[in-house]
Design a protein that fits this description.
Elements (H helix, E strand, L loop, with lengths): L6 H25 L3 E8 L4 E8 L8 H23 L27 H13 L5 H10 L14 H12 L6 E15 L4 E5 L14 E3 L11 E15 L6 E3 L2 H18 L6
Antiparallel strand pairs: 1-2, 3-4, 3-5, 3-6, 6-7
Length: 274
């Protein structure tokens, strides 16, 4: 007898295939070395300054489209799973809820229309689900805040935002800078220095890898330097709102796929309705 793979599992599998394709596209972009070091004169003292400049953008490659394929299949897998958790009559309108903690509570005085709408939607979404499934979904709801700290961004909330944006426009994929960057400095007498490049106020990331933002100024470059060459790995990210609010890919998408595949699906499969 042939086993039929549930669509919510097949969707995650397809997302993982697109993740491999995304990694390959990012690698091609990195191999093209889409960055350079430019020299300029700045300030009242006409100080010679060297800056990192990106010469190409990942937005002009296939990276945003492939990332959108990953996001679509991950979000769709949740909706397909939700459809399997509700009564047959509700399956055409079922959407996996990504709202906020306490959305199931009575409205608060003066609450805005969007929150009232989500509370009503929660009630209708879960009306024909088993109580155990409802309890699981309550635990999966994002914190009741705007998620201002990107480092602690809720995986489902970000997936939902990216999915909503992709419905209307191309994802805001950017290259915010370089990591693990080496520099070779050539001085006027031909002397060369090779080592880890730094910027003013340089601080390592939590994993001890340096990070250089686009247009960052190099520090400790000798005054008689005639050439600065660099080699590094471009970081690719998708914006989540605001100039400094972005999350790296494919890393963040891998984490989201893992959450869905290893936690959400196994946690809700026991409550799928025939």
């Amino acid at each position: 007898m042939t086993m039929i793979v549930p669509s919510y599992i097949a969707k995650v599998s397809r997302a993982k295939e697109h993740l491999v394709e995304l990694e390959e596209a990012i690698e091609r972009f990195a191999d093209s070395e889409p960055y350079a070091v430019r020299q300029g004169v700045e300030g009242k003292k006409n100080t010679k300054v060297w800056r990192l400049i990106f010469t190409r953008s990942p937005a002009d490659t296939d990276i945003p489209i492939i990332a959108a394929d990953v996001i679509y299949n991950l979000r769709s897998s949740l909706d397909h799973l939700m459809s399997a958790l509700v009564a047959k009559k509700d399956r055409n309108s079922a959407i996996f809820p990504v709202y906020f903690q306490g959305v199931w509570e009575p409205p608060e005085p003066g609450e805005d229309q969007q929150r009232l709408k989500l509370r009503a939607r929660w009630t209708s979404d879960t009306a024909t689900m088993r109580p155990e499934a409802v309890a699981f979904l309550k635990g999966a709801q994002p914190p009741d805040d705007d998620g201002q700290d990107v480092e602690d961004a809720n995986l489902l909330r970000v997936l939902n935002r990216w999915s909503n944006r992709d419905r209307h426009e191309k994802l805001p994929v950017i290259a915010p800078g370089l990591s693990i960057m080496l520099a070779r400095i050539t001085q006027s007498d031909g002397t060369q220095q090779l080592g880890l490049a730094k910027t003013p106020g340089w601080q390592p990331l939590r994993d001890a890898q340096p990070f250089f933002k686009d247009n960052a100024r190099f520090a400790e470059v000798p005054e008689d330097a005639v050439k600065v060459e660099i080699k590094g790995a471009p970081s690719i990210a998708i914006g989540v709102g605001g100039p400094e609010r972005y999350l790296g890919i494919p890393e963040h998408l891998h984490l989201t796929a893992k959450l869905i595949e290893q936690a959400i699906i196994p946690g809700l499969v026991p409550y799928v309705q025939a």
